[in-house]
Structure of Efflux RND transporter permease subunit:
Amino acid sequence: MNLVNLSVKRPVGVIMIVVALLGLGFVSLRSLTIDLYPEIELPIAVVSTSYEGAAPQEVEKLVSRPVESSVSSIEGLEVLQSQSQAGSSLVLMQFNTGVNLDSTLLEVREKVDQAQGILPDGAGEPNVLRFDPGQLPIMNIGLSGDTPEELQQVAENRIVPFLERQSGVASVGIEGGKIREVQVLVDRAQLSQYGLNSQTIVQTLTTSNQSASAGAIEKGKKDLQIRLEGEFDSIEDVENTIIQSQTGARVKLGQIADVEDTLVNSNSISKVNGEPSVVLSILKKTDANTVETADEVRAAIEELRADLPEEVGTSVILDTSEFIKTSINSVVWNILLGGVFSVLVLLLFLKSVRATLVIGLSIPIAIISTFTLMYFTGETLNVLTMGGLALGIGMMVDSSIVILENIVSYRQQGYTMVEAAKQGASELAPAVIASATTTLVVFLPIIFVEGIASELFTPLALVIMFALIASLAVSVTLIPMLSSKLLTKPLQMSGRRYWFDRFMEKVNDRYRSLLRFVLKWRKSTVLVTLLLVVGSGALVPLIGTEFIPASDQGQITMRVNMPEGTSIDETEQLTNTVDERLSEYSDIIDVSYVTIGGGGMTGIGNGSSDFASYTIELIDPGDRERTTAQMVEQLQESVSDIPGADIQVSEMDAGLGTGAPLQVQLNGTEYEVLDQIAGQVAYVMNQVDGVSNATSSTDEGRPELQIDVNREKAAQYGLSYQEVIGQVRLGFNGQIATRYRNGSDEIDVRLILPEEQRQTIADLEGMSVQTPTGSLIPLATIANLEQVQGPVTLLRQDQQPQVNVEAEVVGQDLGTATEEVRAELERLNFPDGYSYEIGGQAQDMQEAFGDLSLALLFSIFLVYAVMAIQFENFLFPFIIMFSLPATIIGITVGLFITGLPFSLPAFVGIIMLAGIVVNNAIVLVDYINILRSKSYDRYEAILEAGPNRLRPILMTTLTTVLGMVPLAIGIGRGAEAQQPLAVTIIFGLTVSSFFTLILIPVVYTYFDDLSNKITGFFRKRV
């Protein structure tokens, strides 16, 4: 092979190329972004619209439906969903894979802009966003000391602006403080006296608080700009605003309303370890490095400490970069351990430090070269890409082992160093390239599948491919060059290691005897293998299935749901009880952070006063005896007896956007019917073993006062329906008239009724409504008030009502639980026009398994195609493919022994096995053919080729298997995602290697007999 000869002939050139690649790799490594998982880019767009003060029904009818209608015709739209809550609408659009989301977002924006004109007054401007499941806060910082309002001001004026200037920081949110607001408390009697209405005041405040340019005049040689300053400079300016009635009466605002500069509660209350705090949530930019951004924020906080008031304390509540760093470090240690194990195997077999060094160099060179390819393809350093390196650590030396072992063989035959390097490497280079290609091609289908399976495992596949390509290049260039320089004399048996040589001689003898036995009893061998493969299938139901293994991040979420309508003060009182229970675990809980009335750190929740969300950070795993899952169970038991609330404890989602483990989506035409069905479904699901906490999206409707305006009576007083509702909304919810600037702050000026006039139902019933003539009438005169249970959230899918029932799966694998739930649902009688679908992680798992099944079939075809090209024969590749069925035995036994369910990583492991296990069979069949070409008969060729190739087969298998052992054991944080993959490959490859050595020779003889019969038949015909 010319490349081999050139490498041996030009050692300096090879060394310089390697040094250049290493240098480029180190530079690339420093530039790689670090994150926990690969960036997940799903073709999903979101339209978010606020409608302050509106009930869910009103939001759905007036906002969600018009937006849905406007975007429903966009090409490539696959799923259209909406979520209508009190005061907000969320419309989610999922497009077909392959859609250019950037251009699609522009089209969505255009459609939404067209629909904005029909949205109701008071609705905010719709925001069109790209859905990013990983866009969660990377860090939470708690501020303590002083009062909440002072902490809010410190945060807004000093801390947030400084942090948002740090590179990588996208935005900083504030929770738990008090917000400054100027309230104009109108007196309706005074308004009536002066013939004024609320809208007149709103319009006057808006137009009075403006500055404008009025051209320019010349002064000498200069132009002076004319500017009219009309913005409010003080509260007095607001009070002195002149309001003019339709009759021409003029009155100052302060005469008909009280203007107060006040502090109002934000939508949430925050507590850290039970103490009131203001909490800052740090969001990073999409392309920013999580670890570097977190480090910069920490440094910025330290820099700020000197400028903050002494009584203000800062503490990091949650820092996701810490888990990322420990996870990456764990994977690095797994790589090092795997490398050490592989090198020890080489040393054991080769009995030479020099020979081991020659092969061992291929590992760091391949890894560092991989960083260069990762940089140019835009990949990030995360637990999956680094896990790919850890998985490939043993495979990186396979090609080099085969090449070096053949070089050593020539050297022991008396060839010179240079000739042995040239002959040994050139002879097997084509086979090595073909063998490596079979491993590489299995990853191609993974890259081209759709959905989350591709998003997660394409980076892993690419990294392994990069590493194998680099190691292949090393094996045909650097290995022969170093061998020609370092293998100065033939390798001799070392007395110190003679025990291993004697052991290998016994293994060879036993293997030769086993070959004679299986060749004599060919049918029995095939039958036993077939029975073992079929029998292993009996273990499949005992293994179970799951989507993606959960990582022990040491982070727990707790959702506290109070009865709908509970005040924020009552919810806070209950969280005090929860805090007392949590204090019992102070030796394990590092930080507990609760947001009352908000969505919490994860943004999950309805943001209402009856909801609280806890984020609990545990101490490091090495310092605690219980896992996060065990702590979840213990905390759930501890808080389950707290009366007056529904409290759910769960592990924090890793940010993959996979949703609830099990979700049943009910579709139909009427919410009332769907609500009834949802109750039945939730009951049925809770009866299934392993399924718990099944709750409907319509559970416990929110109490509300419905105002039924009598339009005829209202018309008699000259009032329209819209005018009545507008006055009620302005009185009880207020209306932002303008903004008052105070330095760098912008403060809302809100027109609203005095607090004492908007506290009770009687206040609402006795509220005065102003007629066009200026007279006041009680609201009860023209409207009926009724207290009902209204929905919390209204869901729609594809412009049809939907209700979801979600549940947790505990103590049972997801696949089994899903099938049992599906069986129970089939027994229910759904009304005509109503149906259900399984969603959540169960649906994602089903879709991903379907995609990967196609990828597996295509991978097997590609492996066969590569071998057919190599052998220029259709028969020999077919023989080699018989090494695949035996992997089923290893996979099922391995997962059963380790107690791991069959998951997405395990499926990827099977696809990888399709390209790995055939390599041993390729080496064996290829050598049998070589010997037969040298006049060996078939029986002698098999008995000679098997023991002769046993050594390199054992070496490559052991280096691959032992290189993955650290991952299979699950050493370190974040190793859970690779553990099923490593276990699958280790057991599958080990069992397959054994059956390859005994089954492939038997199958070879069968197909050789068949080939001879066919050849003989055609010869007779000729």
In short: The longest strand covers residues 275-284. The domain at 44-130 is CATH 3.30.70.1430 (Alpha-Beta Plaits). The chain has a mean pLDDT of 84.
